[in-house]
Design a protein that fits this description.
The protein is of the alpha/beta class. It folds into two domains: 2-254 and 479-502, Glycogen Phosphorylase B (Rossmann fold, 3-Layer(aba) Sandwich), CATH 3.40.50; 266-474, Glycogen Phosphorylase B (Rossmann fold). Helix content is 38%, strand content 19%. The protein is built from 19 helices and 20 strands. Helix 1 links the parallel strand 1 and strand 2. Helix 10 crosses helix 13. Residues 498-504 have low confidence and may be disordered.
């Protein structure tokens, strides 16, 4: 099948989060399965700085944006490996900027215009580059107008009238909401500015528009697909998602095991790690060596018999740091547990963690910022990985942790609930337990679950079985890509059956 990925992020060209990982990995895996994907994305400054070769196509285009015509050109590159073409939409005024969506924490004021242009450019690429596209796979609000254009301005025009669209929601909290008069920029008839399609509390909402017009909708875990159909996790769009529940599916993101794999991880050969790569057959020795090296690197005492708990990520309430802060504050003074924390975010959490590290240097180690290399070494050296997110559409660090034999402790939400099986007598007997989880979002529930994990740490037969189960599980992109392939086939079978698009 010929699939066009309309996205604003794809590793290595541009990335701010998990979207970039998905759109950099999934198309390559689909190509290995026999599909013919291409990626269309803006030519951000990051793309030029990515190191990938970029060449002109000689193809330009012009589309109406409000009352003016705006032109752009297509550049060509490819994802690493060369099998998947990448076409970059060049418009320096829109995309040659320091950041993708905002600067110094403030959204660019012309984001509506920038991504209206991109939505139309993705469709223009199909004919002007003769791509032969059968299905358009759009991602998040930044490309969500594309299905709307397909069912309005481009409707009835070959080959657009035979195309189907899939919209994947990576995080429903980001919707692309703009002043209602920005509807003029889209050129779409005002009759579609109604409560069932493009209007949301008086504003133009890109994500809602995509949900209304896409032939099918997906998100990044089955649990999250259910959660967003009701408040509060639906973020106001639960009504339209519930209405479209027959067209809504959840597929877990995959892991690139060529990058996240302790057997071949190149980051475990420096900083005193001495090449201690390991797999499921020799994890005991490998993790022991990596733990000692991590303790040294983080300035913690080298102690084998104490659990080392790791946290990596954005220091924010959404990631559960209100709970983490409470537990570390209590435990750092009384517990023998060690903490290794890597991340950046809310200054109040940064200040708290740095204060605790100064007060308890033998128990708390903090690195403010982000280091990909250190993240790999933390996954290898830690015993327990903590992810108490308030909500988590999919999550990737818990999957990395499983591969590295680092036992996850998670809040049972979204993709965390779909991937981590809580240790019980039943799950242990069935051989499915791979971590610990708690249902109630509270610091008490987190502390109780973490205490249970730390106690289990000292029961080596049970602990090592948890490690083996996690390391042997397959969360690769191969499985996810097959599920997407099946979803694409369903979308083609449902061609033209989007009910919301008939309103107005």
């Amino acid at each position: 099948m010929k699939i066009l990925f309309a996205t604003t992020e794809a590793v290595p060209f541009a990335k701010t989060g998990g979207l970039g990982d998905v759109c950099g990995s999934l198309p390559r895996e689909l190509a290995r399965l026999g599909h013919e994907p291409v990626v269309v994305m803006p030519a951000f400054r990051q793309a030029y700085e990515s190191g990938r070769p970029i060449e002109p196509t000689g193809v330009s285009f012009e589309v109406p944006i409000g009352r003016k015509m705006v032109g752009g050109t297509f550049l060509r590159s490819s994802l690493p490996g060369g099998e998947v073409p990448v076409y970059l939409v060049e418009h320096h005024g829109y995309y040659d900027r320091p950041e993708l969506y905002c600067e110094r924490g403030k959204d660019y004021k012309d984001n509506c215009e920038r991504f209206t242009f991109f939505a139309r450019a993705a469709l223009e690429a199909i004919t002007r580059l003769d791509l032969g596209t059968e299905l358009i796979h759009c991602h998040d609000w930044t490309s969500a107008l594309t299905p709307a254009y397909l069912k309005t301005e481009y409707w009835g025009i070959p080959p657009f009238d035979s195309l189907v669209s899939l919209l994947t929601i990576h995080n429903i909290a980001y919707q692309g909401s703009f002043w209602h008069w920005d509807m003029e920029l889209t050129g779409i008839d005002w009759k579609h500015f109604n409560w069932r399609q493009m209007e949301f509390y008086g504003n133009l909402n890109f994500l809602k528009s995509g949900i209304a017009f896409a032939d099918m909708i997906s998100t990044v875990s089955p649990r999250y697909a259910q959660e967003i159909q009701s408040p509060p996790l639906g973020c106001g769009l639960d009504g339209i998602l519930s209405f479209r529940h027959n067209d809504l599916f959840g597929i877990i993101n995959g892991v690139d095991y060529s990058v996240w794999n302790p057997e071949i991880d190149p980051h475990l050969v420096s900083h005193g790690y001495g090449g201690h790569n390991y797999g499921v057959q020799n994890f005991a020795d490998g993790k022991r060596a990596c733990k000692a090296a991590l303790q040294q690197e983080m300035g913690l005492p080298v102690v084998e018999g104490q659990p080392l708990v790791a946290v990596i990520g954005r220091l924010a309430d959404q990631k559960g740091f209100d709970l983490v802060a409470d537990v570390i504050r209590q435990w750092s003074a009384t517990s023998s547990v060690q903490w290794a924390i890597l991340g950046t975010g809310d200054p109040r959490y940064q200040d708290l963690l740095e204060d605790l590290a100064r007060q308890h240097p033998d128990r708390v180690a903090v690195r403010i910022g982000f280091s990909n290399e250190l993240a790999h070494r933390i996954e290898a050296g830690a015993d327990i990985f903590l992810m108490p997110s308030r909500y988590e559409p999919c999550g990737l660090n818990q999957l990395y942790s499983l591969k590295y034999g680092t036992v996850p402790v998670v809040h049972a939400t979204g993709g965390l609930a779909d991937t981590i099986t809580n240790l019980t007598d039943e799950s242990f007997a069935a051989g499915t337990a791979n971590g610990f989880s708690f249902e109630t979002y509270s610091s008490g529930a987190l502390a109780e679950t973490l205490e249970r994990a730390c106690q289990t740490f000292h029961n080596r037969p049970v602990w090592e079985q948890l490690i083996r189960t996690g390391m042997q599980q397959d969360w690769s992109w191969t499985h996810s890509a097959r599920e997407y392939g099946q979803l694409y086939e369903q979308a083609l079978a449902r061609r033209g059956q989007s009910l919301c698009s008939d309103a107005g």
